[in-house]
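FIELD: query
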Amino acid sequence: MSVRSDKMESTSTMMNQLDLTPAVHTAGVADHVTATIQAAQQADSALGEANSLSVSNPEHPIRRNISVSIRSTIGDLCLRKAKGTWAPTSSALKNIFQKKKFVNLGGSAEGTGDLRSVVLHDMTLTHFASNFPLPVGATITAVDSNTYSVTGEAFGFVAPSMSSSSGSTKLQADDTSLAYEFARKFPGYTAENLSEKGIHEVPARRFCLVASDHPLVSAIQENQERLQLGDVSMMPEGLVKIGTDLYNTVMPIVTNQVSSQIRVRDFSTAKVVLSPSESTSWSDARNELVSADKASLRSELETSLSVAADEASIEKLRKDFATKEAMIEHNIDSRMCEFSMNLDVTYNFLSK
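FIELD: result
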């Protein structure tokens, strides 16, 4: 299936071909009608931001500024890795990313936009701050992990220890041209719903009824020389009858091509996961911090022992050392660490 299509006649051109001027009308009636239409349009525009949602217009993307905050102690992170994850609930993600549309004058509203088919324009880091005593890497939904650490692990972004910045950093920028072209040619279709939307299987008769605007129909038409035309027929209701064998042969190819060519992001489980960038786990990172702090303490102990006057002094030094060691571990385990970042996200939806 070829995703690219010939440029279609614009809506404005088609509208110009229509004669919308009535033969006879009075000026008073015309003015009244015009005023009524304008008032209705203004009222509708005020109902919600989703009225301006256009999944086929790259010039009007949606923009969100998202604040991410992760707070935990090193000790808790060693016990529960999930403590280093920023993951809003499903309902929260809908509130964040979907556009609100009021469906009636009573104030009822619903979210618009399929979070599983997000066309990402770009994602920019506008601010970050970290008081972690070690470098941390963030794995971010929709951001390709192209920043590598000494361990060989890849992250979307790495923050040095005890650092902050308000500079703007582009984390991700996707090519959206194919996605918008696909949305114009096949509105409402995504790789995830190809086998459901516009498909009506009739297993007993070994055929499927497929909506005429389905990408599968386009693929069959563009490759009709390689296919048996006897398996395809147009029904009066605007549905295309396709044999089961042909459907099972072509549909996987179409699905694979759409998923590979049309890059969409799944924001239905959007999250940010924090990990130590120079250690393989939080436990290893914690042990390295403890070891580094104890090293200087041991050096101090050795110096004190070399000048100790008697066994009693030596014993006291060792007890003090053990106490300080325990305090070092306690301080590292219980210290509250925080990582925060602001993300400026520009996107749209392939499907409402």
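FIELD: remark
The longest strand covers residues 336-349.
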